[in-house]
Amino acid sequence: MNVPTMAEMMAQGKQPEVLFWVGAAGSYDDRAKKISRAFVKILHAANVNFAVLGTEESSTGDAAKRAGNEFLFQMQAIMNIEVLNGYEIKKIVTCDPHSFNTLKNEYPELGGKYEVYHHTQFIQNLIAEGRLKIDKNTLQGKRVTFHDPCYLGRANEVYESPRDLIRRLGVNLTEMKRNKRTALCCGAGGAQMFKDAEPGDKEVNVLRTEDALETQPEIIATGCPYCNTMMTDGIKFKEKEAEVKVQDIAELIAKANNLL
Amino acid sequence: MQYLPNIIFAIALIAGIGFFVINIRKLTRNIKLGKNINRTDNKPERWKNMIKIALGQSKMVRRPFSGLLHLIVYVGFIIINIEVLEIIVDGLLGTHRIFQGFLGDAFYGFLIGTFEILAALVFIAVILFWTRRNVANIKRFLSREMKGWPKNDGNFILYFEMVLMTLFLIMNASDTAFQQAGIGNPISQFIAPLFDGFSPETLHIIERTAWWIHILGILVFLNYLYYSKHLHILLAFPNTFFANLNPKGQFNNLASVTKEVKLMMDPDADPYATPAEGEEEAVPEKFGASEVTDLNWVQLLNAYTCTECGRCTSACPANLTGKKLSPRKIMMDTRDRLEEVGRNIDANGGTFKDDGKQLLNDYIQPEELWACTSCNACVEECPVNIDPLSIIMDMRRYLVMEKSAAPQELNAMMTNIENNGAPWQYNQQDRLNWAKED
Ligand code: SF4
Ligand code: SF4
Question: Where are the transmembrane segments (chain B) (predicted)?
Answer without folding.
Answer: 6-24, 68-88, 108-131, 152-171, 209-227
